[in-house]
Design brief:
Rossmann fold; 5 strands; five-stranded parallel beta sheet
Length: 163
């Protein structure tokens, strides 16, 4: 199975949708760095706490190259910086990231980033979801997750659920 590293946002979004198990179904074990653990277990007020030790398929691995993490933290948050550094170190096939800046840096560093929308599309393609439209609605309304109109249209078109 492939090596996948995740930042906080995709895990949080799937947990909110009660679909966290999709990560294990699609990818198997997911590696997360310590900064992501902190963000999941000590969230900002509007988010639910996720206890990492209670999610069997999440494995915490710290990136060894603190210099790379420090460099990345000049423009990215701690979770993104550690996730990208860890993905590089372990030769990850995929890094799960939602924020545009993090995805850009990941691509520049030779990584293949997938966000929550890509995960939902993949789950639908593989027959694990019937529809993603209501999930996009919930992400936007309940979590304040920003999806541009053009991106929403493209995702729904790809999912064969066009507006």
């Amino acid at each position: 199975m492939s090596i996948v590293v995740s930042d906080t946002s995709p895990i949080r979004a799937l947990d909110h949708l009660r679909l966290l198990e999709l990560l294990e179904t699609l990818f198997g074990e997911i590696l997360i760095p310590p900064a992501v653990v902190i963000e999941l277990e000590k969230p900002r007020l509007r988010f639910a706490r996720i206890v990492v030790s209670e999610v069997a398929f999440l494995r915490v691995v710290a990136p060894a190259d603190r210099g790379m993490v420090d460099d990345l933290q000049m423009t990215l948050d701690p979770g993104e910086a550690e996730a990208i550094a860890l993905a590089i170190e372990v030769g990850a096939d995929t890094v799960l990231l939602d924020e545009a800046a993090g995805r850009d840096v990941a691509r520049q560093r030779g990584l293949f980033p997938i966000g929550i929308l890509g995960v939902l599309l993949q789950a639908k393609r593989q027959g694990f979801l019937d529809s993603i439209r209501p999930l996009l609605d919930r992400l936007e309304v309940e979590l304040g997750f920003f999806i541009s109109r053009d991106l929403r249209h493209e995702v729904l078109k790809t999912a064969e659920e066009e507006d």
